[in-house]
Structures are given as structure tokens and as C-alpha cells.
Design goal:
Elements (H helix, E strand, L loop, with lengths): L1 H12 L7 H13 L10 H13 L1 H10 L4
Helix pairs in contact: 2-4
Length: 71
């Protein structure tokens, strides 16, 4: 969850460059559930929310059709 949250922030740091379609959809899903913060803050709640996203299987549901794989 921490690494995924860091990756989402990394995508934002590299804007206006664009990422792949899969990562863009994952990024959008994460940001629909965890708003971006501009200031330093305690990220405990963000990590808990990301853990819930990872555990839910939502990210696999997003990526699976784009990767042409099945679980």
C-alpha cells in the first residue's frame, strides 16, 4: 500500500508527462478514493485507505481487462 501510494504521487510529480493507460486508470481510482494533498501531512489515513483499495481487488479488476489476463 505504501509503495502504491508513493507511485501515485510519483506520477503526479512527473506531470505533464503521461503514464500508461493502465496506470492512469489505477491513478484515477486511487485519487477518487484518496484525495491528493499538497502540504506535508501525516499519511496514516491515506495508508489505511490504500490498504483497503489493495485488499478489495478493485485494482486487479481495473488492470485485468487491459492486460488481457485472467486470475
Amino acid at each position: 500500500a505504501v509503495e502504491l501510494l508513493s507511485s501515485v504521487r510519483g506520477i503526479e510529480c512527473h506531470q505533464p508527462l503521461q503514464t500508461s493507460e493502465i496506470l492512469a486508470q489505477v491513478h484515477a481510482h486511487v485519487r477518487n478514493n484518496i484525495p491528493s494533498t499538497k502540504n506535508d501531512s501525516i499519511i496514516h489515513e491515506e495508508i489505511k485507505a490504500m490498504t483497503d483499495i489493495v485488499s478489495s481487488g478493485d485494482l486487479l479488476a481495473i488492470a485485468e481487462p487491459l492486460l488481457h489476463i485472467s486470475a
